[in-house]
Amino acid sequence: MLPREQDLELAAARLVAAASLRGVTLATAESLTGGLLGQLICSVPGASAVYRGGVISYASEVKASVLGVPVGLLASRGAVDPEVAQHMAQGTARVCGADYGVSTTGAAGPEPWDGKPVGRVYLAVAGDGQVFSVERNYAGDRQSIRQQAAHDALVLLSDALEDELSS
């Protein structure tokens, strides 16, 4: 289901609040969302206290040279891959000097990409010595897939931060 603009704004506000409460900084690595994730975070008042920045790594060469995704991994599996997403999240945290990184990579369409169907997306979170990724399979057009991925990336990182607070 396509998140409404209000859902996106609330998810971004929740993330900024969780990061502020925890006293950590954030960075984004975006491929298919093309800056939408960073835009949503920056729209929240007070985001400058927790958001260090992001890398829009649309091209595989940028994923490799800036974020440190292994070239061999990109060559063998393509950019739409859970391990690529993990390297992207780790790389953006390192490059931006943040405590946590979150990444998005996937096939937004209209055609499949790297042998992956339209709507296949990988999101990853890196921080606190851990990294994990999740697979999502969205329906809809290109914009809808991008919005769903941005929303879920915000929620995924918020959940990770809130889990850390409660443990």
TrEMBL record:
Residues 12-160 form the CinA C-terminal domain. Pfam families: CinA. SUPFAM superfamilies: CinA-like. InterPro entries: CinA-like_C, CinA_C. Gene3D superfamilies: CinA-like. This is CinA family protein. It comes from Rothia endophytica.
